[in-house]
Amino acid sequence: MVSADAYKVFVIEDSPLLSRFLVERLHAASITIVGLADNVKDALAGIAETRPDAVIVDLMLRAGTGFDILRNLQKSNGGHHPARMVLTNYSLPPYAAFAKRCGADYFFDKARDINKMVETLDSLKKRALGRRNGSEG
Fold this sequence. Notes:
Elements: E1 8-12, H1 16-28, E2 32-37, H2 40-50, E3 54-57, H3 66-74, E4 83-88, H4 93-101, E5 106-109, H5 114-132
Parallel strand pairs: 1-2, 1-3, 3-4, 4-5
């Protein structure tokens, strides 16, 4: 069972090595991983089931793309709108622009920006927990 005051993140990444690294890195930052997926179908089912506060999306997956996930998350989803973070090796401006059009809130390069992504998640966590506790975060 996940604590009510946990900041929940769902990770969509097709590299088992990077998935393990992200789980360890986010756990060290007191961020709760509620699910992992390496394809669109499993990711969308897992997100619907766990209703995370944020999703980390790789663009190139075993089946489908992160763009498919981002477009799906732009829809209503019963009022559930997690923060959408892209973490990719494809960090050229056209990919970033298309990801933003598909609904990405943040865009990070795997080689340069993992610490920045974790800092962003930490900031989002503090704001969300502040709102849940009735104060500013």
